[in-house]
Amino acid sequence: MGEEMDKKYTIKYLGHSAFLVTTQKYYLFFDYVGTVKKNMRKNLEEEFIDFENYKDKKIIMFYSHNHFDHYNKELHEKTQKYENIISVLGDIKSDLENTITIKPRETKHIDDITIHAGASTDLGVCYLINIDGFTIYHGGDNAAWDDVEEMQKKYYREINYIASFGLNINIAFIPICKFTGRRPKWITEGAIYLVKVFNPDVVVPMHSAGKEDLYNKFYIDALEEGCNNKVICMEKLGQEYSNC
Description:
By secondary structure, the chain is an alpha/beta fold. It has a single domain (2-229), classed as Metallo-beta-lactamase, Chain A. It is 21% helix and 30% strand. The protein is built from five helices and 16 strands. The strands form three sheets. A seven-stranded mixed sheet has the order 8-7-6-3-2-1-16, with no helix packed on it. A seven-stranded mixed sheet has the order 9-10-11-12-13-14-15. A two-stranded antiparallel ribbon has the order 4-5. Helix 3 (149-163) runs parallel beside helix 4.
């Protein structure tokens, strides 16, 4: 019974590409910007997190790259006051304490955590993380965004690089559309290739910028292409999924 409890994890959807994964010993935040951010097109809303409620475990904040919808320097600075928080930055320079920068194709260790970073077709990195007996992939902005030969080659090369570690991936967070909500076929084809190569226990589509209905559309496409993996289509902020 105790071993089964140790293998439990919970995923909480914080919006867009942001998630909280809770394991036995850690809270893992991925690409959480923590506020409503604006650009010329729309607002980006995310679930509010009060870190005062998360002091019972170590927290690792993973940021894949320095785009407004994936990294918030102001939030990074505010979390400095919490002794239980470490930030991992994907190719982002920082002189803040309790912060580790990792570059593409680097591997780093924090305590018993192993972090592999792949390159991204946009900025920064994608992550492959082994922690608490689980392996988690978070794609950041690594996707086959455009039908351009060099980008296509880079994307598939990095997916194969991540797969070369030979790890059983339990959770794969993958971008399935552009920030505008467009889903060109090459993005879908690239995401489905990832699912087939990684064969993760659970697939979590992301990067919808508030258009959560796109997640289920990707799920339908994946089924039609023979992917029978469990796909968690988050529908609203704060929604949770547990493997137990």
